[in-house]
Design brief:
Layout lengths: L5 H11 L2 E6 L4 H6 L2 E3 L1 H10 L4 E5 L2 H10 L4 E3 L15 H10 L4 E5 L4 H5 L3 E3 L4 H6 L5 E5 L2 H12 L6 E4 L12 H10 L4 E4 L5 H4 L4 E2 L2 H10 L4 E5 L3 H9 L4 E4 L14 H10 L8 H17 L1
Parallel strand pairs: 1-2, 1-3, 3-4, 5-6, 5-7, 7-8, 9-10, 9-11, 11-12
Helix pairs in contact: 1-13, 3-4, 4-14, 11-12
Bound molecules: 1,3-dihydroxyacetonephosphate and iron/sulfur cluster.
Length: 307
């Protein structure tokens, strides 16, 4: 009899434990394939809030699993590799945010979901790359402190200012090291190679890179657009894992990465072996202290209320 494969073992144990596997769009192909749900940060948060499973195995980076643990305090959230962090989320500390708030006391604070629970706890509302414009528009104030991603902040500010010139944005100097590698020349070279392709980029990209694109989307937005568009070819300006997801779900279309160097090392830390060990040993559990979790939950549920 053939030996049980890693995938079979994961499926079996997942059933026994009443677990669900959630994976971000940048995960390794084999991890995306084993997941019950693959999506962007907003989709993953919504899925975590809806699941009937007792256990969530989160294949992504720390802030994503932490968000799931905050939304679902009654569930156990596990990360197969707890060292998978997001460098951008670590680019702002609570004292730094407190000092920004002190200097701009009438401003509301919007934190990108790529932030720690402690930052969420000190913010008014959370946003993702799928809803930053909607979230900022929903706020009845003239000043917005937007942390930590300056590029998503700049993109959002530009869109908001199309209708409301008076809204002032106070940005923090955070950024995603992976998206910062995607340069305008990469897009221009890719366009030369594939002249008929639509260019989609993530709003974490530099403004000069965004200026070269036809469309700007979260990874979930890219997925929907690729499905619905009549275009047959796409240049994809985001982390490389997204190309696998798009190609798998649209085999009749062609997807080209803007550059092969846009790899998030943290997103690649989760492997199938680690997923299995996580289910076997119930490790690593995401724990958020109760006071921080309660405050951060308000910030996240305000956002989910708009969805
Ligand atoms: P999405 O929510 O668009 O998937 O983005 C998450 C992220 O970390 C992008 O780098
Ligand atoms: Fe963080 Fe960038 Fe990796 Fe997304 S791609 S998890 S923003 S480092």
């Amino acid at each position: 009899m053939a030996a049980e494969s890693l995938t079979d073992k994961i499926h079996k144990l997942k059933k026994e434990r009443n677990a669900v596997i959630l994976a971000h769009n940048y995960q390794l192909p084999e991890v995306q394939d084993i997941a019950d749900y693959t999506g962007d940060s907003l989709g993953l948060s919504i899925e975590a809030s809806k699941t009937r499973a007792d256990l969530i195995v989160f294949c992504g980076v720390h802030f994503m699993a932490e968000t799931a643990a905050i939304i679902c305090p009654e569930k156990t959230v596990l990360m197969p590799d707890i060292k998978a962090g997001c460098p951008m989320a670590d680019m702002i500390t609570v004292p730094q945010l407190q000092s920004l708030k002190l200097k701009n006391q009438s401003a509301k604070v919007v934190c990108y979901i790529n932030s720690s629970a402690a930052i969420k706890a000190k913010s008014d509302i959370c946003c993702t790359s799928a809803n930053s414009i909607e979230v900022c528009r929903s706020l009845d104030c003239n000043e917005i402190i937007f942390v930590p991603d300056k590029y998503l902040g700049m993109y959002t500010e530009k869109k908001i200012k199309d209708n409301n010139k008076d809204k002032k944005f106070i940005l923090w100097n955070g950024y995603c090291p992976t998206h910062a590698k995607i340069l305008p020349e990469h897009i221009r070279e890719a366009k030369k190679k594939h002249p008929g392709a639509m260019v989609m980029v993530h709003p974490e990209c530099r403004p000069e890179t965004i200026a070269e694109a036809d469309r700007v989307f979260s990874t979930g937005g890219m997925w929907t657009f690729a499905k619905e568009s009549t275009a047959k070819e796409f240049i994809v300006g985001t982390e490389i894992g997204m190309v696998y997801r798009l190609q798998k779900d649209n085999p009749e279309k062609k997807f080209y990465p803007a550059t092969e160097i846009a790899v998030c090392p943290n997103m690649k830390k989760t492997t199938l072996e680690k997923v299995l060990w996580s289910l076997e040993d119930l490790k690593e559990k995401i724990v958020v202290d109760q006071k921080t979790a309660e405050a951060a939950r308000l910030t996240i549920t305000r956002m989910l209320g708009l969805s």
